[in-house]
Design brief:
With about 375 residues, this protein is of the alpha+beta class. Helix content is about 35%, strand content about 15%.
């Protein structure tokens, strides 16, 4: 191998490696957290105005965020980037990810895995077919864990849905979030933050079907064909008790304790509240207190940070998602609907291909310039 080729290979490999590296501050100091430096701490972050401030109520949660969805201003927060288990609030990410790519009229055959999950289920029967739009209602209204698995299966495979959810979290810059399930049941390594859940909640407002389902008080679900449907009552009673409430998602497991995502609109302002790791049966009371404070102080407090916008590139799973499947085609778990490319690996793959092509071209050019060896006689 000539010196010219070796030098070319070194340059190409260096360029490819650069594509895989994450640029950091030249000073070697850690970068500010997503949303601003004031959101780096574990305590309460709030900036009261000099006059007429209303005291932030005590919220017995390990982490929370209240933010203006329109301006993106974080009005107050506590340990916003602390990582905690999401419980069923992860279902909002499931809906944000899958609603834009699944045909609502498509049907999916319930797997044994979906039918046998516990607790919080609508009662799916293995082998029976269910419409995607009905499954989303069960997911968001009563937090049905079996519906979450069936919706994941509707993408073609459970694993594919989890990949799509994590790609969506990356797209939203929800970097504290790792999804291991579509329903939020406890799994090692699964976590989120109050800040990330605010990003996910803000994106939910851009998915009309999701917010429509969140606002439904009561509906029916056809558990088994030709049988009386099951009545679903929305678990979020703030729809009845809190003026301007748009919906909410409650979660709970023994490990995560209670979690909550909620939305409310008053006077042209839409607020988001997220709370993690709090005592059960108190989430709606304290969500109302935090929202009341937010509506009173929105535009008066200096923001403690900002909700960042999604990355500009459209996630791969939205470009070639399961929406291409005809609505009349029942999707069975494990059916091939195509696998979305990981958006993080595409630039590196392109770089490696370019590097390889460059090496080959350089080798050919070098070979042309070498004197031809004489044939043996």
């Amino acid at each position: 191998m000539t010196r010219r080729i070796k030098r070319t290979m070194a340059l190409c490999l260096g360029s490819a490696a650069c594509l895989a590296m994450t640029a950091g501050p030249s000073s070697g100091q850690p970068a500010a957290p997503v949303g601003g430096s004031e959101l780096a701490g574990h305590g309460v972050a709030v900036n009261y105005p000099p006059h007429g401030a209303q005291a932030l109520p005590y919220i017995p949660a390990s982490a929370y965020v209240v933010a203006d969805a329109g301006t993106g201003q974080v009005l107050a927060a506590k340990d916003p980037h602390g990582q905690f288990g999401p419980a069923s609030t992860l279902k909002v990410l499931t809906a944000v990810t899958l609603m834009p790519v699944l045909n609502p009229n498509m049907t999916v055959v319930a797997s044994a895995k979906a039918a046998n999950v516990t607790p919080s289920k609508v009662g799916l029967i293995a082998g029976d077919s269910y419409r995607v739009s009905d499954l989303f209602k069960a997911l968001l209204m009563i937090s049905a864990n079996d519906a979450a698995i069936a919706l994941a299966d509707a993408t073609g495979s459970y694993a594919k849905a989890i990949t799509m959810m994590n790609a969506e979290a990356h797209h939203l810059q929800a970097d504290d979030t790792v999804a291991k399930t579509p329903n939020g049941l406890n799994r090692a390594g699964q976590h989120t933050s109050a800040y990330d859940e605010a990003l996910i909640a803000r994106q939910a407002l851009a998915v009309p079907g999701l917010m429509q389902d969140e606002a439904i008080r009561v509906t029916t679900f056809p558990v088994k064909p030709h049988h009386k449907p099951v009545t679903l009552w929305n678990q979020n009673t703030m729809l009845e008790t809190y003026p301007g409430d748009l919906g909410g998602k409650i979660g709970w497991t023994t490990d995560t304790k209670t979690t909550f995502i909620g939305w409310a609109r008053r006077g042209g302002h839409t607020l988001i509240v997220t709370m993690l790791h709090m005592r059960p049966l108190t989430e709606l009371v304290y969500a109302a207190k935090l929202l009341d404070w937010g509506f009173a102080m929105d535009g008066r407090v200096r923001p403690a940070g900002y909700l960042v916008r999604p990355l500009s590139a459209t996630p791969t799973h939205r470009k070639a998602g399961a929406a291409a499947v005809p609505a009349a085609t029942p999707v069975r778990p494990g059916s091939a609907l195509g696998s979305p490319a990981d958006p993080l690996t595409v630039p590196l793959a392109i770089g490696l291909v370019v590097a390889l092509v460059t090496v080959v071209v350089a080798a050919r050019l070098s070979a042309r310039r070498q004197p031809r060896a004489r044939s043996p006689r």
